[in-house]
Amino acid sequence: MTALIVGGDRLGNIPQVLNERGIDQYIHWAGRKKGMRNKVVPTNIDMIIVLYDFIEHNLANIIKKESKTMDVPCIFAKRAVSDLAMKLDVCKYCTKDCEYKKKKHISY
Q1: Where are the domains of the chain?
Q2: What fold does the segment set 2-107 form as a domain?
Q3: The dihedral of CA 45, 81, 9, 77: what is its sign?
Q4: Record's InterPro entries (predicted)?
């Protein structure tokens, strides 16, 4: 599974948490600069993870709309590893053999 992570200057232990939950590849955007709004969301992703305490507000709205348009699951979490792990564990779309990968899902 591939995830787009938006937010957070550094990821710290987040890649390990993702790996434990079957997300073996990720693309990371820092998300703090205005120019990030013009970036195009890759089409080869299975989910979007927004670290909302380290992201420019308008970019969060753009990502949310884009995830709905692409019909890709989108999870909003703090940058804390524990919060992200909890959100991924609750999310039934985030397992290795997910049957719901392409369904709409937004977790707040």
Answers
A1: 2-107
A2: Rossmann fold (3.40.50)
A3: positive
A4: UCP020408
- Please give the average per-residue pLDDT across 21-30, as a whole number: 89
Tell whether pTM > 0.90. Answer: no
94 pLDDT band, cuts 50/70/90, is low
Residues 6+ apart with CB under 8 A from 2: 23, 24, 25, 26, 27, 44, 45, 46, 47
**Which tops the pLDDT comparison, 34 or 24?**
24
